[in-house]
Amino acid sequence: MKYVVWAACLGLAVMCWGGFTSQAQVEVLDDRPPQLERLKYNNPWLLVDLGVGLWAWPLPMDFNGNGLTDLVMLDHEGYLALFRREQQVDEVILRPGERIFRLEDESEPWRLNERWAGGSGRYKLSAVMNEDNDRWDLLVNSVNADLYENLGEADGMVVFRDHGAVDSRRLSSHTTSPTVIDLQGDGKREILIGAEDGFFYHMPWED
Predict the structure, then answer these.
(1) C-alpha span between 207 and 205 (Å, rounded)
(2) What is the spatial distance between Cα 104 and Cα 17, in angstroms, rounded to a whole number?
(3) Dist CA 42 CA 52 (whole Å)
């Protein structure tokens, strides 16, 4: 039995042809008509609604040092959020996102992206442990990559200092993908940036 389904292409497991809204024929294996609807935020039947931005870049890490892997990523409104994992009596759970990050000299939570829907999560993040203070610093895509230094906690918020771009060269008109590696194997951090021209750019880490 075949049905014609109108579906919005929302980054879910729905295949659309011809644009963000398009007409497609879908094979149904039984007599039930397909039930397609836009999911609401904070669905009560979910244990945790990640509520993240479309194309959000997840950073799995043990952010709070409790031995469990947390998630740091942009939420559905473009704020950087921490999704904590916690050990309960007989299971490990993932907590909803908390906007606990801010920039130095600002009081509001850190909002990297003020766009919504398809544009809300469009940031590439990379985390690196600062061995001098055991804090996670961040690299964020920009004209090449911006470095944000973790200054620690103040009034319940994790504070970052913006050090700007790591290089003067422009590698992006849209986005880059920065990360930290030890290519030489000498225990020293180096920066590797994937750019839109198909090349990788390698540079030393400047403390």
Answers:
(1) 6
(2) 45
(3) 11
Summarised one tens digit per residue, pLDDT across range 6-59 is 333 333 333 333 333 334 444 444 555 566 565 555 555 555 667 666 677 889
175's tokens: 């986005």
Which amino acid, residue 103?
Answer: L
Residue with token string 């906007």? 99
Other CB atoms within 10 A of residue 49 CB: 16
Contact 104, 151 (CB under 8 A): yes
Number of residues written out for the chain: 207
Q: How far apart are CA 120 and CA 74, in angstroms?
A: 8
Answer whether 18's CB lies under 8 Å from 6's CB.
no
| Phi then psi dihedrals of residue 141, to 5 deg | -60, 145
Which are the contacts of 111, defined by CB distance < 8 A and separation ≥ 6? Answer: 77, 78, 79, 80
Give whole-number Cα distances, 73 to 149, 155, 203, in Å.
17, 21, 25
Give me 54's structure tokens.
């479309």
Beta carbons of 140 and 124 less than 8 angstroms apart: yes
The whole-angstrom separation of Cα 96 and Cα 50 is 6
Least confident of 70-79, 100-109, 154-163, 166-175: 166-175
